[in-house]
Amino acid sequence: MAAAGLGPARLFLGRRRGAMRALLGLARGLASGPQTHFGFQNVSEEERREKIYQVFENVAEKYDVMNDSMTLGIHRVWKDILVHKMNPSPGTLLVDVAGGTGDIAFRFINYVHSIRERQLQQKLKRHQNLSWQEISKSYEEEKVKPLGDSQVVVCDINKEMLKVGKQRAQHLGYSEGLSWVLGNAEELPFDDDKFDVYTIAFGIRNVTRIDLALQEAYRVLKPGGRFLCLEFSHVSNPLLSRLYDLYSFQVIPVLGEIIAGDWKSYQYLVESIRRFPPQADGRT
Amino acid sequence: MAAAAAGSLRRAGWRLWRGRAGLRCQLYPPQRALHASAVLRRASDEQKKEPLASSPQQQFDSPPTDPQPDHEPQGSRPSYTGQGGQESEDYESEEQLQHRILTAALEFVPEHGWTAEAIAEGAKTLGLSVAAAGMFHSDGSELILHFVSQCNTKLSDLLEQEQKLVQLGETEKKPTDQFLRDAVEARLRMLIPYIEKWPQAVSILLLPHNIPSSLNLLTSMIDDIWHYAGDQSTDFNWYTRRAVLTGIYNTTELVMMQDSSPDFEETWRFLENRIADAMNMGNTAKQVQSTGEALAQGLMGAAVTVSNAETNKAVRAELCSVPCLMLACLPS
Questions:
Q1: Number of residue pairs across A and B with CB atoms under 8 Å?
Q2: Is the keyword Transmembrane helix assigned to this protein (chain B) (predicted)?
Q3: B264: alpha, beta or left, given left = phi > 0 and alpha = psi -120 to 50?
Q4: What are B56-108's pLDDT values in tens digits?
């Protein structure tokens, strides 16, 4: 099946107190104009940030459609697995960085909502002899706090992506516990020790200084907080990798041109996946 | 093609950055070594950079702590490597942190059951985020194993103290059945605060991926009890004794879970009867053996008698025939 050729996604689960090391310095700090990569080109850091901003500005509208067509819908499964691994309990504060269109945030809200419902049901079951007043009071509680104090903050550097995300939220009916913040992953506009979970799904390879992003993650997470990173990685099987290369370089940019009218952005996307350090480096 | 797809799916799976090793991480040994890495306390936050750099070294310096909870020494001094003297005094390993979280989580078990929620509440009381419960398996098995190993350690300490008292001559040595009864009762009494949720715990411990560790804990506890009871057998008795006691313990535990009498009297009476049965079983075995021997001897004797009788008849017949011959010879 063609699905076999899709980029395998990987989950890095780290903890604030765990050994979190900077990834390979993609930009070893040179004195002036540190060189970094943009896809397979070499550009300066500032230029890279601008270019990436433009890429996502262009694709924002069609971002979800392109995700579906590129991964044949499997990206939904990966994101579901991410939230399942997170196993959030009601009362968890999540910051979803580079969360743009809000995929992870919506899944988080659904998950917490169902957990909360189950919790209230179990509480009712335990108190067998409740009067009708107490029962109606618990219904009130459920209405007032459907998420049990959980909050998710979606942070993205790109205004267009946030705009699309807000529209989606309105369309799908998500209003409680959701916030949209414009911010750079390398310099988050939050206080120290605020969040329980930090997620970054398919975003960290677009960050220019990954070490700064990790430092920021460490800073805003509470002690005992969790860092979850979902990202494309390398295929080790040679046969599969050939098929995957074929698919990436021949099919995806064409799809990009047809669906979103933007070949270059998807060329960048595929190249950036290749340039991202492989799994082993991530673990250190 | 299907194999390649399956292979890619497996690779397309996720590597878990698990805090503790345990059975699942046996697939990824290099990761497991990294997991024994440093965990800093808030006090030493300024030294974020250096200890992070030194963590890969620590896996080789500090002895890899065994993942099985029953081997975790209680109250051991945290060992720290002298990586340039960067580690501060209140350095805590990840295993110890997990230990603390699980201990704190135990008080929430009567309310939430043996679940990740109880662990999350426990982490909250320690000042950590609720997400720290993500370190553990989501079905709460680590919590139960931790509790069981804690109980076993308490039992060992209790039995050791008793032994010391006996050695000092302050108390008399109990007869075996009394000793076993008291030991099993003491161990089961530790379950009383959690008895409502204990059936859940037993069912979780019977899950296939938990069976090795739970069986390990059970057998080492039974072994401990027999050791302090003074068992020094070196033959097959060793196995039979442990098997018998395991059976008694498990059945008593089951009875306890549905016992509603005051202070579990029914359970202790059941225990007494089972131990008496076990003792009698030993005597009965001896009796059967001796009866068998007696029977065999009886049969042997009967056979000898019969054969003797046969011989006698033949001899008497010969004896009778001789005088007739003599009588026959006389008149001439």
A1: 114
A2: no
A3: left
A4: 444 343 443 334 444 334 444 444 444 444 444 567 788 898 999 999 999 99
| Cα B312 from Cα B157, distance rounded (Å) | 73
Any A CB within 8 A of B16 CB: yes
Integer Cα distance of A65 and A256 in angstroms: 10
Residues of A in contact with B133 (CB under 8 A): 87, 89
Give the Å distances, CA to CA, from B154 to A79, B72, B122: 44, 13, 21
- The amino acid present at B316, given as its one-letter code, is R
CB-CB: which of B1, B12, B134 is closest to A226? B134
CA B88 from centre of chain: 38
Q: Which of B16, B17, B116 has the CB atom closest to A87's CB atom?
A: B116
Residues A82 and A74: beta-carbon distance below 8 Å: no
B33 Cβ under 8 Å from any chain A Cβ? no
Q: Residue for token digits 């917490």?
A: A112
- With an 8 Å Cβ cutoff, is B132 touching chain A? yes
Coil/strand/helix, residue A63: helix
A148 vs B163: CA distance, rounded Å: 53
Which residues in chain B have their CB less than 8 angstroms from residue A6's CB? 12
DSSP code at position B86: -
* H-helix or E-strand spanning residue A70: helix A63-71
Q: What is the mean pLDDT of residues B120-125?
A: 92
| Beta-carbon separation of A223 and B128 below 8 A | yes
Closest partner CB to A89 (pick from B14, B48, B120): B120
Query: What are chain A's domains?
Result: 2-239 (3.40.50.150)
Contacting residues for A232 by C-beta, under 8 A, at least 6 apart = A7, A8, A9, A10, A202, A205, A273, A276
For B127, half-sphere exposure in the C-beta direction (CA atoms, 13 angstrom radius) is 5
Strand B92-93 and strand B38-39: the pairing is antiparallel
pLDDT digits (tens, 9 = 90+) for B223-260: 999 999 988 888 888 999 999 999 999 999 999 999 99
Chain centroid, CA B273 distance in Å: 22
The reported pTM is: 0.69
Are A13 and B16 in contact (CB < 8 Å)?
yes
Question: What distance in Å separates the CA atoms of residue B170 and residue B161, rounded to the nearest whole number?
Answer: 12
